Amino acid sequence: MSEIEQLQPQPVWQWFARLCAVPRPTFHEQAVREMLVKAAQEHALKTDIDAKGNLRICKPATAGMENCVPVAIQAHMDMVAQKGADSQHDFQRDPVQTQIKEGWVWANDTTLGADNGIGLAMGLAVIFSEDIAHPELTLIVTVEEEIGMGGAEALSADWLQMPYLINLDTEEAGEIFIGCAGGRDASMTLPLNWQAGKLSACTVRVSGLRGGHSGVDIDKNHANANVLLARVLSGLYAQIPFALGSWQGGELRNVITREAQAVIGLDADTARTAVAPIAAFIAAEWAEETQLDIEVLPAEDLTQAATLESTQKALDLLLAVPNGVMRMSEQFKGIVETSSNMGEVKTGTDGLLIHCLMRSLLETPKDEFSLRLAALARMAGANLELTADYPGWAPNADSPLLKLTSTIFARHYGKQPPLQIIHAGLECGILSGKAPHLDMVSFGPTIRAAHSPKERVEIKAVAECWSVLLDLLKSIPPRQ
């Protein structure tokens, strides 16, 4: 038995350990789904898998609760795959290695997958239990949540006929989430003109940033490596024009980029001298990024690079693409209304590719921001593609499930729970669009630095959240 399997509550941590043992990055969920189906079969529970790969497990009510309102517990099975620069972890082959440090469970220089593995583990611990009171119960486990919410988008409304749904995909213990932002992907492609010829080269790299979740961390002043690298190279180009050989920064549009690098047609010594004062200014401005490193390293000679004109256009576009908080909410004080994250930048055969994720509590700001990006693309001579649009989840202050959940929280935490709206994409927004009758709440234990190698989940908060979930399930009222 592993160290975390001995933690309390054991059923939850044992399931989380099993999830950590099976690689499950987005688009590679088959193995973990097969594990869950096998467990359901062993417990003689009905399962369904839809064409997308979403999983439904159904369980009858326990004795005495047959006439209570049916409930769904909902979580997703995929995880963000991010690792430290020196990590050799293979997310498609290697299990996540867990460790306990000062009351928290961490991974070993990779994402932990507590988002949303710990919520899923709670749902599994309930559905496979023998002694937990609950009404008629459906566990809905989606795929592809972390990249575009494709699982929820494909989910049939036939799976959502129950009145109540509990989403376990939020990350602040003691709080109830009643709304979330919607999102839209924006992919911009700038054609580049390439020229052949041997050039001395160097690599300019920005690394060591905190990174984080592009929704919940977007207002925490975390630097974006793509943005900083664009600034460094633009300052360098103003002194010494150079040809861009390649750019690689970030892998996922919903992660604040921690590292980015570009290979340029300039010798390392010359570039290092010119970059030094720019790096010093940036380091002073971003003092909270204590591990920030801006370095110039020798590279193999380039045999092909973008023309000077194309290089200038690429740098101009990268500087001009909006990143970060665009607007704070007027209705909900202290909550981000609209934001954008330049999560991935790279060069390829089509030119310079820029992948952003915009988020907003409202639909119209997404449209307005899309118009701004379209105008910017036209001026730059780039192509813009808008995809993966999903709605937000509008709060319902009169929700019966919310009132019951608030009562349970007050009993456990000794005070009325804060009601929150998260600036991130919960699947609740998509599910409410498919089944407007659904009465939903979302809660979960405290998770920090999700989507980064510093991701961790608080052990005490898991136990508290588990107690709340069990109390809530046994308190579900009879059908009216």
From TrEMBL:
Enzyme class: hydrolase
Keyword Transit peptide belongs to the record: no
Keyword set includes Hydrolase: yes
Peptidase M20 dimerisation domain segment(s): 207-268
GO terms classed as biological process: proteolysis
Signal peptide: none
Cofactor: Co(2+); Zn(2+)
Family statement: Belongs to the peptidase M20C family.
Name this protein carries in UniProt: Cytosol non-specific dipeptidase
Organism: Snodgrassella alvi
